[in-house]
Amino acid sequence: MTTATDRPAPGAAPAPAPAPAPMRFGVSHAASSAFVPDGLRTYFEYRDLGVRDATAGRAVMHVIRARGDHQATGEWHRHAVQLQLVYVTRGWVRFEYEGVGEVRLEAGSCVHQPPGIRHREIEHSADLELIEIVLPAEFETTAA
């Protein structure tokens, strides 16, 4: 039950939001951070770059690489994110975006996927490796 003492007086400013946790310095070295096959897609391995911890969950950044002969399954989906960037460092990947069509990214290519855009991965090379940056670190992915 809400009482008069629980609410601000009429015309009063709302209470300020709590300050977000501070960000801290972070560094990740390849020699001390392994690739693991427990990310969003079973056909990739992920190497966390420590950004989630350094930013108190505001962002995540990882290196993603293809897992052997595993190939994309091509499901249409969306991510509830504020920002998603992909930069290909090796190999190639082919995506399809609603309203855009097919896009092939190669080493040196970068794509900004707008929040909520419906998309799917069609295929990738066996040597694919990319860097992905997403805000926030925790986000929902839904079939579309």
Description of the structure:
Helix content is 3%, strand content 39%. It has one helix at residues 51-54, and strands at residues 44-48, 60-66, 77-80, 83-90, 92-97, 101-106, 110-112, 119-124, 129-135, 140-143. Strand 5 and strand 6 form a beta hairpin. The mean pLDDT is 90.
Descriptive tags:
144 residues, mainly beta, 1 helix, 39% strand, globular
The biggest beta sheet is recorded as: 5 strands, antiparallel
Question: H/E element string?
Answer: EHEEEEEEEEE
**Distance between termini?**
40 Å
Look at the helices and sheets and give the structural class. mainly beta
How many β strands by DSSP?
10
Q: Spans with pLDDT under 50 lasting ≥5 residues?
A: none
| Shape annotation | globular
Q: What share of the residues lie within helices?
A: under 10%
Number of helices: 1
Per DSSP, what share of the residues sits in E-state strands of 2 or more residues?
35-45%
Topology summary:
Blueprint: E1 44-48, H1 51-54, E2 60-66, E3 77-80, E4 83-90, E5 92-97, E6 101-106, E7 110-112, E8 119-124, E9 129-135, E10 140-143
Antiparallel strand pairs: 1-2, 2-9, 3-10, 4-7, 4-9, 5-6, 5-8
Short structural description:
With 144 residues, the protein is mainly beta. The protein contains one helix and ten strands, in the order βαβββββββββ.
